[in-house]
Structures are given as structure tokens and as C-alpha cells.
């Protein structure tokens, strides 16, 4: 055993203790010259009842962190505390944490209801109560009529909801979701996002969801933790992470950004260094229009128009260099939208210029 | 299209007829297999049953084709025959259980633990002994188990233990392969999911692994059980003076054919009962 003392539960004041506390977590896979550090000295607190997403590109260490919390992986260094209790080295079956797996992992030899009953059966809950609670959980995900089907007879979205019901039926203190919506098509994914948020709010259970989809992270989470290369780049509310990215990586990964590089920044912005401006923060107007007081203005030519339904993305090649994307809302004033090749004047408030170091 | 050489007209016509008559196509495909089954399997089986109900002239030793149930009733009421049948079944059961117990960890390692690129090699290693001659392998065990041989005092000597051990060695690959296929279905997150939902390793084995593997083990047992049931050479070489049903059939084959046939009906009955029992596990869908 790596941590001999870990199995003893530590009774701490649970009122103040966060649902999950990670202290100096490091994870190294392999050894010697082939060793890869997946997570570098991570500290993270997640409060009770919070909905947190771990966002990052593949290989950024977010799934490893989730698996360390679940107990499938042992950290190379550091401690995992659940409600103040040190569970480092404690097996998954002794943690009050459930996981919704990317491949759902519904047991193929059991019906939908038996799958949902499984954790109750393990906990030796009586037959009738087991059945009632499983049916109740299936009703919350609107799958009551499917109870006697085999998992293979369900669609991807339905399997996803069964996995959710199974993980929630015995009310764990923490639910971990590993890219749970990755295999679903866009429409279903958007619908499931709303359902997840609703279920989380009603149950009050702490949700930690891993995703590489920034839209999903922004939609779902109370708080987003952005991972890059095994480190936390930024942790904060959706609007904080989006409006005030703490690093160039976050600015680039969360949302779309217009990059204004150091070679054109002095000419366009009148400042040194690299900057980013969100497309929706930029106003577009006639070439002879006045730039509002205190705003930054720049002239250019429309080089591309991409119509996407609710919005049109308008790419403007600035006279000063750089090329900026501008997002136009198609709100009924289509006739005012510029044409390709038209001369336009762009303007934005300097507050929306995000420094990228 | 026009540059393609036209197929000769009669092949085209045959193809057209077959295309229009799916049933004709099906009969054409099934005919060779059906012919094979009837000539080489059903006909000999019927002859065997008929022979069991024939009689041997006790003076000349000639078969007289008068229908009589005497031989069959004789076999079914003679304790010596029935005890031999029981011992044979016990050997087959022992071999099957031993094969299952050995195959489970082996197949688990092959399917879940070993690196994916090494799996084909492991499968090949398991199957390789099937390429060697049956007799060579049994003689090898005879030498290995000889009381004054390599094992010395550790050898159980020639007898039932030696028979079960040797047969287990012979038929193990037939158990490992279906169990390996069955365990492969557990790749993915099933085992982690069970642990995650609170199941300890033994509970996971009982509630997830075993139910998924039951049909696979049953499928493998059809092989190990039936192959053991019909064996008579292994017991001759390593079984000491013991006999199995096959030995009785073999011994009476040249002197009393109806008796040999009646004795051969016994394993048929056992096998039919066995197949009917395990049909309920769904294992036969996997053969």
C-alpha cells in the first residue's frame, strides 16, 4: 500500500470541507526516459453542489484528474480529499463517488432496470425498495417505459440517460462525467446539456464533467477549469474565463479570438505585444462613420462573408495588416450587411482588447 | 459498359434464373451440405441404432437382423456397464471443470491484461498443441506420468487422475478459445464501472464477469465434455487397468457388434441430455 494511513476515515468538520480537494496532485505515467507527466502539482477545490467542468484539449490531463478522483488511478504524489476525508489509496468501491463513462459501460447481460438497480443491489437494499428507487431514477431521465429493455436495444442518447440514472440512483456525493455527451449528435447533445444542468440543480450533487468542447463547458458549468499540458491555466466562472482569459492559451481555446500579433499591434491598436479581440465585440460601420469616443477604430476591406443562419461572420482585411473576424447578428437588417470587397470601418472598446503577453 | 466482353449467353441465363428464384438459389447452396450431413452423419447413426436392436447368433457369431430390444435392455440393466458409464461421465465432468478453472485466468490475461499486439501470439500459442498428433501427446504424458519417470514420487501413477490430467491437457484449447472470446466482450469500462458502483473484486466477478462468461464456458464445455466422453485411447495409455465406455465399445466391436452399438448409444444419450441442459444458457447460439 502506498499510503497505509489513508484507509482510516478522518472525521473532519464536513460543513466547511469542500466536496473534492486535490492537494499537490502529480501523475507520471511510465518510468525512466519514457516517463510522461500527465498532471503537474495540481491544487483544486470543488465545493459541495458545484457544477464544474474540466476543459482542455486531449492529452491535457483532465481525464487523468477525473480518474484520480474516482480512484482508478493512483497519483504519483499528492492527496485526494473527499469532504475532508483523505481517500488517497482508497479503492473506487470505497469512495462515495460515481462515474458516467464515455462508453456508458452498461452491463450487457442486465436489463435497463437491473443496471440501474446494480449499486443498490451491491449495497444490499431490499428487492422492492431497490425496484422502486430504480424506477424513480429512470422516470427522472424519462426512461420508465424502457425499464425491461436490454441496453443494446436503446439509442445512444437513451443509454447515456440510463448510465446517468444508474450513477445517481444511490445519491453519491460526487458525480464524475467523462465526456458523457461526446458520442451524441449536436441536437441531442444540446438537449442533454439542459437536462444535465437541470438534474444537477435539482439533486444538489457535485458534478465534475470532463469535456474538450468549450461550448459545452460554457453552457453547463458554474465554474470552468481550463487544462493545458497537465496544468490548470485558469479556473473561474464561464464569463470570467471568456471575458478575462488569464493566458494566451485560454483566450485561444475558449471561444473564437482574433489574434493581433506583435508585428501589426502598434499599427492597429497603437500598443506593443500580442492582443486578442472577440469577434462579437467589434462593431462594423460605413467607411466614413465616426468612431465612438474612446473606441479604437480601424479601416479595411471585407474579404469574406460566412453566413451561418443566426449570424454572419465577416472577415475584414485591415489596411494596417492583420485580418479580423466580425460577428454580425442577422436580426432583420440584412440589407445593411456589407458586401464582399466593400470598404468598412471597424471599432471596439479598448477594454475588449485582451493582452496575450 | 459496352467495352466489357459479354458473358456467354447460357451463364447469363442461369444467372438470371437464379436471380429471379431466390429459393432455387438457396437450395443450390444448401444441397452439398445437406448431402454431406445425410450420407456421413444421419445414415451411420441410423445404422448404429438398427445394429443395437439386432441380435448375434451365439453359436456362429453372425448378426441376425431380427429386431429385438434384448441387447439394449441388457446394457441398461447390467450394473457393470452403467458404472462404467457413470465413471466416464465423472471423468468428462472433471476434465470440463478443470479446463474451465484453468481457462478463466489464462483467457483473462490474454484478453484484458496482455498488450493488444501480443494477443495474436498468445492465441497461437494456445492453439499450437492442437497441431501435434494426438498419440504423440498422450505418449508424452505416459512417459511423464510413469511411476519411475521424471516426476518420480510426485506422479499420481497410471489411473483416473492421470486420465483426467491428460484429457484436460488435450482439450484445454477448446475451452480457452470461447472463454477468450467471451472475456474480450468485457473490454471497455465494465470492470471499472462495477468497482465505481461499489462492487468489490469478488462481487464484480460474481455479478459481471461470470454472467457474461457463462455462455462461453458452456460452449467450451460442449467440446471438453463430449471429447472426453468418447475418448478410449488416453485411458488405455495412462489409465492403468481402468476402462471407459469407449473401451467397452472397442472391445466388443469385432466379437459382438450389436452389443458395441448398444453401448455406443449410452454416450449419445448422455450428450443429448447435456446439450438440452445447457441450451438454456444460450451457449449453443455461440457455437
Helical amount of chain B:
over 70%
Main sheet properties of chain A: 6 strands, mixed
CATH architecture of chain B: Orthogonal Bundle
Strand content of chain B: under 5%
Let me know the number of strands of chain B: 2
Largest sheet of chain B: 2 strands, antiparallel
Anisotropy-based shape of chain A: globular
Strand content of chain A: 25-35%
Structural class estimated from helices and strands of chain A: alpha+beta
Average of the residue pLDDT scores of chain B: 86
**Rg of chain A, Å, rounded:** 25 Å
* H/I helix tally of chain B: 12
How do the helices and strands follow one another from N- to C-terminus of chain B?
A: HHEEHHHHHHHHHH
- Cα-to-Cα separation, first versus last residue of chain B: 45 Å
Terminal-residue CA separation of chain A:
45 Å
Secondary-structure content class of chain B: mainly alpha
What does this structure look like?
The complex is a heterodimer of chains A (357) and B (287). By secondary structure, chain A is α+β, with helices and mostly antiparallel strands. Chain A has helices spanning 62-70, 112-122, 127-140, 156-168, 186-203, 214-220, 238-243, 248-253, 265-268; strands at residues 20-29, 36-46, 51-55, 77-82, 85-86, 97-100, 174-178, 206-211, 223-228, 231-236, 258-260, 275-277, 283-285, 296-307, 311-318, 323-329, 343-348, 353-355. The longest helix of chain A is centred in the middle third of the chain and has 18 residues, at 186-203. Residues 1-14 of chain A have low confidence and may be disordered. Chain B has one domain: MetI-like fold (Orthogonal Bundle), CATH 1.10.3720. Helix content of chain B is 72%, strand content 1%. In chain B, strands 1-2 form a two-stranded antiparallel sheet. In chain B, strand 1 (55-56) and strand 2 form a beta hairpin. In chain B, helix 4 packs across helix 9 (201-230) and helix 7 (160-184) packs across helix 9. In chain B, 30% of the residues are buried. The mean pLDDT of chain B is 86. At the A-B interface, strand 6 and helix 2 of A face helix 8 and helix 9 of B.
